[in-house]
Amino acid sequence: MRALAAFNRLPPPAQLTYVWEQGYYLAARPMGAAGLVRVYEVDVFFVEINFATPSDFEILRAFHESVYLQPYLDQIDLAGLLS
């Protein structure tokens, strides 16, 4: 829980840098006409980032709750984990 609280205190550019350096990309989903939301696993939490364009981003939320991963579950391949 401390890692998430510390992340939320960072300014958005520092949050993005932290995600790039420490995060693991999981999946993406469309948002709006041209936007794209990507979700990353970072340490012990997840981060959703909305990209209107590659250089225009907004940190949507950082969370622990797996319920927020629901929109991405059809994109995550678990076959390798099951064999």
Summing up helix and strand content along with how strands pair, one would put the structural category as alpha+beta
* Tally of individual domains: 1
Q: What's the arrangement of strands in the largest beta sheet?
A: 1-2-3-4
The tally of strands reads 4
Q: Tell me the Rg in angstroms.
A: 13 Å
Report on the biggest sheet: 4 strands, antiparallel
Average of the residue pLDDT scores: 85
State the end-to-end CA separation: 32 Å
Provide the β-strand percentage band: 35-45%
The low-confidence runs, each spanning 5 or more residues with pLDDT under 50, are none
Helix content range of the residues, please? 25-40%
Cα shape:
globular
Tally of DSSP helical segments: 3
Listing every helix as H and every strand as E from the N terminus to the C terminus, the arrangement reads: HHEEEEH
Report on this structure.
- This protein is α+β, with helices and mostly antiparallel strands and 83 residues long.
- The protein is built from three helices and four strands, in the order H-H-E-E-E-E-H.
- It has a four-stranded antiparallel sheet.
- Strand 1 (23-31) and strand 2 form a beta hairpin.
- The chain is globular.
- The model has no long low-confidence stretch (mean pLDDT 85).
Summarize this entry quickly.
The protein contains 3 helices and 4 strands; from the N terminus they run ααββββα. It has 83 residues and is an alpha+beta fold. The mean pLDDT is 85.
Note the main attributes of this structure.
single chain; 83 residues; alpha+beta; four-stranded antiparallel sheet; 3 helices; globular
